[in-house]
Amino acid sequence: MNDGNATDRVIQDLRQLVTTAAPGTRLPSVRDLTARHRASPVTVAEAVRRLVAQGLVETRSGRGTFVADRPDRSRPPDPSWQTVALGPRPAGEEELRALLALPPPGAIPLSGGYLDEDLQPIAALGAALGRAARQPAAWQRGPAEGRADLRAWFARESGAGLHADDVVICPGGQSGLSSALRALGGPGDPLLVESPTYLGALAAARAARLRVVPVPADADGVRPDQLAAAFARTGARLFYCQPLHANPHGATLAGPRRAEVVAAVRAAGAFLIEDDYARDLTIDGDPPPPLAADDPDGHVVYIRSLTKSAAPGLRIAAIGARGPAGARLRTVRLLDDLFVAGPLQQATVEFVTAPAWARHRRSLRTALRARRTALLTALRTHLPDLVPATVPRGGMHLWTRLPDGVDDVALAAAAAAEGVVVVPGRPWYAAEPPAPHLRLTYAAAPPDLMDEAVRRLARACRGSL
Questions:
Q1: Biggest alpha carbon–alpha carbon distance for the chain
Q2: What is the pLDDT of residues 147-193, one digit of tens each?
Q3: pLDDT by residue (tens digit) across 405-437?
Q4: Cβ-contact 222, 249 below 8 angstroms
């Protein structure tokens, strides 16, 4: 007998009883249902579990299964009052939700900001978390700022620019960024950002009611002269920057510009929020040290996440800041979350201090290089006009320029209809984009699908390019 069919029969039987019975009515026992449907007790228990999850029945220990109370449906619910109470929807929410949406079945994702499952160190993470979960101490309340050994590891990763006491652990880089913006700025304050910049940063800034001011960037990163001019014109005290493999355009802040950017921030008496999300995603050569490594006076607020380079479920990141800014950040993190789950912190410490972490980084570099090459090869074959002028030395994305007049949002919709998911460039700009772009991700699909993905994109581009 098919267990699935038996489960369905039990569910249908109980649904009919629930429909006609009053709330609180006792339903047939597991033994009765087992005999009536010739099903195993496990099958009956599964059927009851599903109906409990749907709110139709409830189980009472030692007494049996009963019809659950049903809400009054004499009139349909009317939540329209919430429209007035809530006011306008926060800006950026729709674009961020679209970015995080899972691709439909059969579609090839050239989108997203996380590694393909095949690239994630699931076995090593699972083993570390399993060991951590079995240790009672991991489930107890730890320091609000996070485990000392995990904070020390993040401090070392900053290039000796920070100490463990300067660091606070947070549940992911987005959470850390949101906390930093709220701790260091207030409603109406200007926030300087690269243009284009990370969509999640724009959403977090608008949620914090900051006034976002774009600063031009090119293949060498943000332009120091334009940054200094923006500080002078706006009086800003905050600048958000991704100096390494910036999302979405992939640029790394060039060597000569690093000192100029920090000097502009210092001269303005401002903070530079350094989002070092891609430190472990370098493909070619060695990455330069973080800007925080050479910042004795506390101008750089350093954010480092492990989510992008390991797995979406490893929601572990850190914020590092010196002086009163660090104290303010720790206060905001305490108010937001109290502390990050102990088992996850302990598993993270075990993972990043074990040989598995170094092996993962080596294999990830090789895999990302193969996927980047496969995507570039497919573009050169099927859409040569979309091959980017500059290939990023790391990260997950290619930033492709479209011809003038092409509607990137409409093109992304046409691509989705052809079965390939791409991201339009428009939402990544804080102001009007100077030209249309697509962001094509090579980390979310295997190399052998890249050619087919670009073939589908080429079909969507017919008539546009």
A1: 81
A2: 999 999 999 988 877 899 999 999 989 999 999 999 999 999 999 99
A3: 999 999 999 999 999 999 999 999 999 999 999
A4: no
How buried is residue 379: exposed, middle or buried, by Cβ count under 10 Å (0-12/13-18/19+)? buried
Quote the CA–CA distance of 178 and 112 in Å, as a whole number: 20
Q: What are phi and psi of 329, to 5 degrees?
A: -65, -40
What is the identity of the amino acid at 256?
P
**Inter-helix orientation angle 450-461/355-382, to 10°:** 40
Provide CB contacts within 8 A for 277, sequence distance 6+. Answer: 173, 242, 247, 303, 304, 305, 308
Task: Identify residue 176 by its one-letter amino acid code.
Answer: G
Q: Does residue 422 sit in helix, strand or coil?
A: coil
Below-70 pLDDT ranges, the chain: 1-4, 71-75, 90-93, 95, 463, 465
Distance, CA of 143 to CA of 147 (rounded, Å): 6
What residues are paired with 109 via a beta bridge? Answer: 421
Specify the pTM: 0.83
